[in-house]
Amino acid sequence: MTFASVLYSEFSQILVYAPLTPFVLALAMRFPIQKGNWVRRSLLHLLFAVAFSIAHVVLRGLSPYATWDAKTQRFVSIFWNSQLQIFEIKWLMFKNLILLNIVDDTTGAYVPIVLVAHALSYYQSLRDREVHSAKLEMQLAKSHLESLKSHLRPHFLFNTLNSIAALVHDDPAGAERMTGQLAALLRSALDSTAMPLVPLEEELRIVRAYLDIERVRFGDRLRYDVHLDAGASSAAVPRMALQTLVENSVKYAVSPRREGGSICVTATAADGRVRVTVEDDGPGFNGAHRPEGHGLALLDARLALLFGTRASMRVDSRAGHTGVIIEVPA
Description:
Elements: H1 3-14, H2 17-30, H3 38-61, E1 67-69, E2 74-76, E3 80-81, E4 86-87, H4 91-151, H5 154-170, H6 172-190, E5 197-199, H7 200-218, E6 222-228, E7 236-238, H8 241-254, E8 261-270, E9 273-280, H9 296-307, E10 312-318, E11 321-329
Parallel strand pairs: 6-8
Antiparallel strand pairs: 1-2, 3-4, 5-7, 8-9, 9-11, 10-11
Helix pairs in contact: 2-3, 2-4, 3-4, 4-6, 4-9, 5-6, 6-7, 7-8
């Protein structure tokens, strides 16, 4: 042997891994080995490794430096007879080359490629989770800001404080109760450490506090009902989601009309799903041209970030009726 012939032989052994590597990466990404399927997937990748080794030997066999021929004392191709210049498969050499390479191909090439693919996949998943978390935090911050703007609007605070002042002498218990409701609203809006999901029961408690405050302001012009199924009370919903919808109803269905309006909040559970509906008898609007400030797009984005395709939101609006229906997993 010469140094050049050995070098060419090594190149024919190593470089043919290159065109096979993308296929192994794709297989590893398509069939990842995970905790629940590691036995089945390991056996599957063992079959892939055998196919990988055969493909490697075939590509290597096309090279004139595929293997050493003891008879002619030189390197030869497995598929080409250089003396006769014809295509000829040397089956014995082909079999021996497979037996010689299958273990090295599996442990030295296929397995490392699969490990690299899994490392890349886990890294990408981690990055995706970080991006998802950042988006969720951003959406929650926007939601907090919108709620904060709503509850810290001067006219809202002034009206609430004036109502409390008016109740102090005539109804001290009512004034105390209203003060507690205002404190609960502000605490919810100002809590920067709040989790993005809260039990439906807790969210409806804040909704009732808000409606009770507005009821003092609007009197009989504001009529509302809140119905909660026992099976739906512990379902997780985005924080301040229902409060946002109720605020919309007060703003667009009650406040601008002399006769006021009615608001109904209903939560039911069935078939592993919880449906929450916020309805009012306001003038309605065209679903394609929602009034600014509704926050429906923000709420829809929050649902997608928190639940993916497992949650949904739709709007049913027409003259004399507007309803927003949210469905989340129970």
